[in-house]
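Entry details:
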Amino acid sequence: MYGYEITQKVEELAQGKIKLTFGALYPILHKLETDGSVITETEIMNGRVRIYYKLTLAGKNVAVEKVKELQEFIEMIGLLIKPGYSLDLCKI
């Protein structure tokens, strides 16, 4: 996906509750590229340069680990707020 496409997909999946700005997105994409988690491909579309971003295998592994960490964090917050809380009861 290219930058604008990513922002639109996030907004769509979040039902408009999350809106990524380009100022937030591009520094993250550049860091992921530097870390080897993302590779880029450049394409000229209607006279404009479009950069597509794709997760590498290492990037997919990092994403899986980060999602796991987030789920554990959400569960811990739930335990602090409401003892007996279970992530299984939470619809994400």
Remarks:
- The domain at 1-55 is CATH 1.10.10.10 (Arc Repressor Mutant, subunit A).
